Amino acid sequence: MSKLPQLVSSVFLTTAISATSLVSFATAQTKTLSGNWTMSFGGRSAKMKIVQNGDNLSGTIAGPMGEMPLKGKISKNRQVSFGVDTPMGSSAEFEGVLDGTSMKGTANVPRIGKTNWTATR
After folding, report:
1. What pTM did the predictor assign?
2. What is the CA radius of gyration of the chain?
3. Residues paired with residue 92 on neighbouring β-strands, in sequence order
4. I need a surface site. Which of 11, 42, 67, 91 has the fewest CB within 10 A?
5. Alpha-carbon 71 to chain mean position
């Protein structure tokens, strides 16, 4: 029996594994915070849209008080920090860490005080 089918299968499998590894590596290298997130803090939920440009973050948080602009930073060790100016003239500050498709940390929010927050894609 010919070894050609086994050789072809082996070459095909090795090529497929290599291609998958390259795609996974490229995706990990280009992943950003940019996109839509569902957020919760202090018993409230909100929708967050982030645009990442280098280590700078901008976007909006939309919740019961309307849509508010967001500005912040992400560090190389996945630490995030951002602030939001509320319609009442105060600001909310969020600090946390990115872990794949989720973020979590602590926040200081007007009328709520210090609280934990989470966000998922």
Report:
1. 0.73
2. 21
3. 84
4. 11
5. 14
pLDDT tens by residue, 56-75: 999 999 987 789 999 999 99
How many residues does this entry show for the chain? 121
The backbone torsions φ and ψ at residue 111, rounded to the nearest 5 degrees and listed phi first, read 70, -10
Average pLDDT over residues 79-88: 92
CATH superfamily of 33-120: Quinohemoprotein amine dehydrogenase alpha subunit, domain 2 (2.40.128.120)
Q: Where are the domains of the chain?
A: 1-30, 33-120
Distance CA 78, CA 99 (A): 8
DSSP structure class, residue 34: -
Amino acid (one-letter) located at 89: G
Q: Considering only CA atoms, which of 60, 78, 80 is closest in space to residue 70?
A: 60
Separation CA 102–CA 26 (nearest Å): 20
Tell me the DSSP string of 48-95.
EEEEEETTEEEEEEEETTEEEEEEEEE-TTSEEEEEEE-TTS-EEEEE
- End-to-end CA distance of the chain: give it in Å, rounded: 52
